[in-house]
Write a structure and sequence with these properties.
Elements lengths: L9 H9 L5 H19 L2 E4 L1 H16 L11 E5 L26 H8 L3 E6 L35 H8 L5 E6 L5 H7 L2 E4 L19 E6 L2 H11 L29 E4 L10 H16 L3 E3 L7 H24 L8 H8 L6 H21 L5 E5 L22 H5 L3 E9 L5 E8 L4 H14 L14
Parallel strand pairs: 2-3, 2-4, 7-8, 7-9
Antiparallel strand pairs: 1-3, 4-6, 5-6, 5-10, 9-11, 10-11
Length: about 475
């Protein structure tokens, strides 16, 4: 394993900091040095808090040396998607028209990260208003997928900068948000482990909304173990977000290492294989074989809905709710906005209240039918994306890469994307594990077992060994 403090797995990094083999100062300096060296090309960050991070690292180092560590993650750096508020800081939501928008509040999840002793390195780029799966941003710039430094490829969106920041070794982990796949898509394209949480698991107080009934913050890291550590800090009740008050208690680390023996895992229907790239399919099939060898039973399930149909229905809710929030902005022709994003939001203008309520009722009906179809089955396995990261100049903005991911948002499931191979061009592929709502502990357990038997999550872009 590497000894570079900027790209160590967090569970190893935190242990080294706690044992004083590494200091937070060394770790933060390593992160800032790589950002300084590489971010002019990779464009992950909207803003880097270099001096503040150095001061926080010095304070953490002194506290740890004095025996006053606030917890096991004290001194670990993190990046925050530029959709998440930090009081006094700029939060653009990916919109150039909001470049001067200063936050008046700090999001609950950021308060929890800081309370755990983490050091915020900076804010990361997102698709405008977080509405887009490819990760492109015409007004503020598109982050560069670090797995190919020659050809500009999609980073995945909307948490594009967070995905690139972690994959490029700028930070060991980051925060994203997921409304239709926005944590899992960049995790897939950038070779990371990304968790889509169930609505209410993580407070959205202080997170700019896109579609409040679908929005979910989630962790992005190299390994499932690290994602579980970060998720454990993020989750919990928050009186400022009433959705959190209805959540059952969760302990994601308690069963993480129990393995998959005896679990029943469903493969996707054969009808869904037709438009998936051959190398992605091959990696998916091999993942099923690997999990079967670990003791899981791979079974068939008859789903009550097709992925395309669900993706359209989820998009309808997204457009209706985002237009209710952003109507004055997107309808103001004087404001320079990404025309593709503007169109996605303005699609909500033609959705009547009757149409919207019918969409919500259909969601409830399909959720009930899906729960019935999945009785006795622990999780549904699919590829995360149909292809690996495509070149930016091949993107069709009328098409979404969220074919497999929107199911979890529409049905209010939790879902985990993990690396499961590489294409002949050296690009990551990914497996998606869809669990029941509030079953994050189980999807993390499945992902952890898979990563104990494979090393895809340990791979890094070749250039990282050179700094």
């Amino acid at each position: 394993m590497t000894t570079d403090p900027a790209i160590l797995p967090v569970h190893e990094l935190a242990a080294s900091i706690a044992a004083r083999r590494l200091s937070p100062v060394e770790v933060v300096e390593a992160c800032l040095a790589r950002i300084e060296s590489r971010d002019s090309k990779l464009h992950a960050f909207t803003e880097v808090y270099a001096e503040e991070a150095r001061l926080a690292a010095e304070a953490a180092d002194k506290a740890i040396r004095a025996g006053h560590a606030v917890g096991p993650l004290h001194g670990v750096p993190i990046a925050i998607k530029d959709l998440v508020e930090i009081s006094g800081r700029i939060t653009t939501g990916g919109a150039a028209i909001w470049r001067e928008r200063r936050s008046a509040v700090t999001a609950t999840l950021v308060q929890r990260l800081i309370a755990a002793g983490m050091i915020v390195i900076g804010k990361t780029h997102t698709v405008e208003f977080a509405y887009g799966g490819w990760g492109t941003n015409k007004s503020m710039g598109t982050p560069w997928n670090p797995w190919d430094l020659q050809t500009a490829r999609v980073p995945g969106g909307s948490s594009s900068g967070s995905g690139v920041a972690v994959a490029a070794g700028f930070v060991p982990w980051a925060i994203g948000t997921d409304t239709g796949g926005s944590v899992r898509l960049p995790a897939s394209f950038c070779g990371l482990s990304g968790l889509k949480t169930t609505v209410g698991r993580v407070s959205t107080y202080g997170v700019l909304p896109l579609s409040p009934s679908l929005d979910t913050p989630g962790p992005m890291a190299h390994s499932v173990e690290d994602a579980a550590l970060l998720y454990e800090v993020m989750q919990g009740l928050d009186p400022r977000d009433l959705k959190t008050l209805a959540c059952p208690a969760g302990a994601p680390l308690s069963d993480l290492k129990r393995g998959v023996r005896g679990l029943r895992l469903a493969r996707m229907p054969d009808s869904e294989r037709k438009d998936v790239a051959p190398e992605v399919l091959a990696a998916y099939d091999e993942s099923l074989r690997q999990l079967e060898q670990l003791g899981a039973e791979i079974v068939d399930a008859t789903l009550p809905c097709g992925f395309d149909d669900v993706a359209v229905s989820n998009g309808r809710i997204m457009s209706a709710e985002s237009y209710a929030i952003l109507a004055e902005t997107v309808d103001d022709a004087r404001l320079a906005l990404d025309p593709d994003v503007r169109g996605r939001v303005q699609a909500g203008r033609s959705i009547s209240s009757r149409d919207y309520l019918q969409a919500l009722q259909r969601r409830a009906d399909v959720k009930a039918a899906y729960a019935q179809a999945m009785q006795g089955i622990d999780a549904l396995l699919t590829p995360t994306t149909r292809t690996a990261a495509i070149p930016l100049d091949e993107v069709d903005q009328a098409v979404t890469p969220a074919h497999f991911t929107r199911l979890a948002n529409f049905l209010d499931l939790c879902a985990l994307s993990i690396p499961n191979g590489f294409t002949s061009e050296g690009l990551p592929t990914a497996l998606q594990i869809n669990g029941r709502g509030y079953d994050e502990g189980l999807v993390l357990r499945i992902g952890f077992a898979y990563q104990q038997a494979t090393d895809w999550h340990k791979r890094r872009p070749a250039w990282l060994s050179g700094g």
